[in-house]
Design brief:
Blueprint: E1 2-4, H1 10-22, E2 44-51, H2 60-80, E3 84-91, H3 96-108, E4 115-119, H4 123-129, H5 135-139, H6 141-144, H7 154-157, E5 161-162, E6 165-166, E7 169-173, E8 176-181, H8 182-187, H9 199-209, E9 216-219, H10 228-240, E10 247-248, E11 251-253, H11 257-270, H12 286-295, E12 299-305, H13 306-312, H14 325-328, E13 329-332, E14 334-335, E15 348-352, E16 354-359, H15 366-376, H16 379-389, H17 397-403, H18 408-417, E17 421-423, H19 430-445, H20 450-465, E18 471-472
Parallel strand pairs: 2-3, 2-4, 9-12, 15-17
Antiparallel strand pairs: 1-11, 1-18, 4-16, 5-6, 7-16, 8-12, 8-13, 10-11, 14-15
Helix pairs in contact: 1-4, 2-16, 10-19, 11-19, 11-20, 19-20
Protein name: Extracellular solute-binding protein
Keywords: Signal
Pfam families: SBP_bac_1
């Protein structure tokens, strides 16, 4: 059944609003965008970029890119056009939630930088609170005329979209795939170019791997200790493979057929056949342990994002370096439950996260702020960022095609996965729903039936979003 609620993240936003009010905020904030032509002809302009990046600390490479490339290059470009621009960089190096609180307070009070970096998952919450506005409301028709949109797949644009309107431009994204050990596959009689087309084929491969001594066939994150990794690397990609999303048409998905099917898949992995290790899902550092197992050739398959490839098993500086990574590690798209059963009738699915930038609705220079946004999201700017910070999947197809050409996994995700990916709902209440999903997977991994775990999740969901009687079968 689907639990209907028109409230979305209202409860969380109301709580946030009360906190802000207690901090002494005034009534001037929460602008929904002003006059796009304001100060359009100004020849002396000051703009501020706010980011959770700081030299020598958190996201230091991003800070260096802004300081060493964006500011001098944009200033020079504007000077050539007869505009004296001063670009200031407001650095931060704090926990993400502390950063979120800071920029929310800034925006609510009518202040804050002109260009602000945010996590895509905050977009809906900030939009519903009136802290940010659609780009077209701020900068007008120039937004729709930007040729950069043609290079950003529609699926990726969703990271900064709310109610079908673009509130910002995504600046980075990722994608989930199934990683597998080709040497273990060969020992189990499985093909090196393995690409499953259904959940059954994943389970069949896991059963073959189970015959190998000292090998855990499959890791699909479950339980609360793994946190959002359970939801993003496990539950939500599988749910997309049933054709369902956790939030669609202004409803939260409750104990639907798809949710039950996902939990049944977990039951098959962690039940009697023991195709995965249920105890690992209960460990505080279980995800890190799974990385170590994969790097040491003791784990056959796991679902992860490109983070695993570039930051975990990277032979050059990874936290669990795998010297033979490039020869041994294979990857495959995540299949739908069966061909054609995924979202939009897809055969394969994925989930992505990402960050983006918004324009402050309170900016005094909306046109110049938009010009800075376009500059920061130009091919040249992304190429400069990659030179400083290393290869990353950018939102732009043209940049990815060139910059990732030497990295087969990154290129695969950019070209094959991003066009079919999906994103979490950008609503304040989502983190609570995510925990309820994690608890449901933990229950199944501990022996609870899929049906009972789904019913438990339904009850938790009703407690989170409220039950006004509008629950549809």
């Amino acid at each position: 059944m689907r639990l209907n609620t028109g409230l979305g993240g209202t409860a969380g936003l109301l709580a946030a609003a009360l906190v802000l009010a207690a901090c002494g905020s005034d009534d001037d904030g929460g602008s929904a965008g002003g006059d796009p032509s304001q100060n359009a002809e100004a020849t002396e302009v000051t703009l501020t970029i706010t980011d959770n990046a700081i030299a020598g600390g958190k996201n230091s490479e991003g800070a260096a890119w802004i300081t060493d490339y964006v500011i001098p290059e944009f200033t020079a470009m504007q000077e050539a056009n007869g505009v004296d621009v001063t670009v200031e960089f407001e650095e931060n190096g704090v926990d993400d939630e502390d950063y979120k609180t800071k920029i929310a307070l800034d925006l609510q009070s009518g202040g804050g930088g002109d260009i602000i970096s945010i996590d895509g998952i905050w977009t809906g919450e900030f939009a519903e609170a009136g802290y940010i506005a659609p780009l077209t409301d701020i900068a007008g028709d120039a937004v729709e005329d930007w040729d950069g949109w043609e290079q950003i797949p529609e699926a990726v644009q969703q990271a900064m979209t709310f109610d079908d309107e673009a509130y910002g431009i995504p600046v980075g994204t990722d994608g989930r795939v199934i990683y597998f050990n080709k040497e273990l596959f060969a020992q189990a009689g499985l093909p090196e170019d393995w690409q499953p087309t259904s959940w059954d084929e994943i389970l069949e491969a896991a059963r073959a791997l189970k015959q190998l001594d000292g090998v855990t066939p499959l890791q699909i994150n479950a339980g609360v200790p793994m946190g959002e990794a359970t939801t993003m690397q496990g539950f939500l990609p599988l749910l997309a493979g049933t054709g369902e999303q956790i939030w669609a048409d202004d409803t939260w998905t409750g104990a639907t057929e798809g949710v039950t099917e996902v939990l049944d898949f977990y039951a098959q992995v962690y039940g009697e056949e023991q195709l995965g290790d249920p105890l690992l899902q209960q460990e505080a550092q279980g995800r890190d342990t799974s990385f170590q197992l994969f790097a040491s050739g003791q784990l056959g398959m796991l679902i992860e994002g490109d983070y695993l490839w570039r930051s975990v098993i990277n032979p050059d500086g990874g936290i669990a370096p795998m010297a033979n990574r490039d020869e041994v590690v294979g990857w495959a798209k995540i299949p739908a439950r069966e061909p054609g059963a995924g979202l939009n009738g897809q055969d394969f699915v994925s989930m992505s996260g990402g960050t983006g930038r918004v324009i402050n609705p309170n900016t005094e220079f909306p046109q110049q702020a938009w010009e800075l946004m376009m500059f920061m999201n130009s091919p040249e700017a992304f190429e400069a960022q990659i030179e400083i910070a290393g290869a990353r999947i950018t939102p732009r197809d043209d940049v990815n095609a060139e910059a990732l050409a030497g990295d087969p996994l990154m290129e695969f995700i950019a070209s094959e996965v991003l066009p079919i990916t999906a994103y979490r709902p950008a609503l304040a209440i989502y983190p609570q729903v995510s925990v309820a999903l994690q608890e449901a997977t933990a229950a199944v991994a501990s022996g609870t039936s899929a049906e009972d775990a789904a019913a438990g999740y339904q009850s938790e969901l009703e407690g989170i979003v409220g039950d006004d009687g509008s629950i549809a079968d």
